[in-house]
Amino acid sequence: MNKEKWINMLDLMPHPEGGYYKEVIKSEQTLSDHNALYTSIYFLLEKNNISHFHRIQSDEVWYYHAGQTLTVHMIHPDGKHEQVNVGPHVDKGDVLQALVPKGVIFASTVEGDNDYALVGCMCSPGFQFEKFELFTQDELLEQYPQHEEAIKKYAFESIK
């Protein structure tokens, strides 16, 4: 399968942070704020269509499905930078699933030879666009100047 077939077969649409997605599961159970207990999406990234630095207010578990290894770039609130490779090459350090804790700023990229990665992302509590924050390079450089190289690579210069 190639990326175009995945995008069409799964009916994926462009995501504001980059890549393509479709919500496929949403809990009918809700929390006291009426948010879903959990949500889950398919998420496809391309080598030249990355997920830019953003933050959500949920824990997000990433599950490898197909394609190349995907790298999740995280900046923790204490300033620690971490990279996790979600992909099929467990013998080379990939993991099949990974957690991005709530409140962590993160981006993701496809950096291998293949041109896409398909993953699943489950958020708990459920993902809400109104609690989704995208960041510009200037915003992140002000707070985390020690990560200038990653920020310039993986954050938008400006947000339209």
UniProtKB/TrEMBL annotation:
Pfam families the UniProt entry points to:
Cupin_5
CDD domains in alphabetical order: cupin_YML079wp
> Where do the DUF985 domain residues begin and end?
4-134
Membrane-crossing segments per the record:
none
The record's listing under PANTHER family reads: DUF985 DOMAIN-CONTAINING PROTEIN, RMLC-LIKE JELLY ROLL FOLD PROTEIN
Name the chain's protein. Answer: Cupin domain-containing protein
User: What taxonomic classification does the UniProt entry list for its organism?
Assistant: Bacteria, Bacillati, Bacillota, Bacilli, Bacillales
